[in-house]
Amino acid sequence: MAEEGRAQRSAEEARAQRVAEEARAQGAEAAKRSQEAARQSAQDTLRMSDELGKLGAETMTVWMRINQEVWRDVLDLHSSTTRETSHLVTQLQQTGMDRWRELQDASVRWYTMWPEAFRDPLRFYQRALEESMETARRSLHATRQNSEIMTRALQQMQTSAEEASRNVHQSFQNAASKLQEVTQRTERLRAA
After folding, report:
1. From CA 64, how far away is CA 14, in angstroms rounded?
2. Whole-number Å distance between alpha carbons of 82 and 84
3. In whole angstroms, what is the distance from residue 141 CA to residue 135 CA?
4. Which of 20, 21, 40 has the alpha carbon at shortest distance from 32?
5. Per-residue pLDDT for 100 more than 90?
6. What's the whole-model pTM score?
């Protein structure tokens, strides 16, 4: 009986030892799975944060590029408008100086015609009428010339503005499509 008791104890101890070893093995296996899951989770987190960082940098690059393109177009428009305005002012000043010279010439001609008014009044009236008609013709010619100058300058400014508008529109369209691509990739990353 004593031997039976010892054998039973020894069988129980062996069983307890096996159960303890199985529990230890299961615990080690669970720890190993837990570590593997933690390592996988950490790798996924690193990969996702890396991807999000790349997407954020790409988004910033798109916005910086569109900002640069729009500013370039605005500055091109500004320089074109400034150049055209200075050309316009120069031409208007030139025509103004031409009109001033013609006015001085006309005053000299009128001044020299007065003595004739007393000697030959009919010839004086005829010359005065001719001079008045010529002055009116020159004045209308100057007005037409100034109108043409203004029209050409405004047409050039309009062309420049339309081109800048098309460029800005195209820049925004390109940026919108690029941002849509980034958004779609972000959504796919979020879904994963």
Report:
1. 73
2. 5
3. 10
4. 40
5. yes
6. 0.63
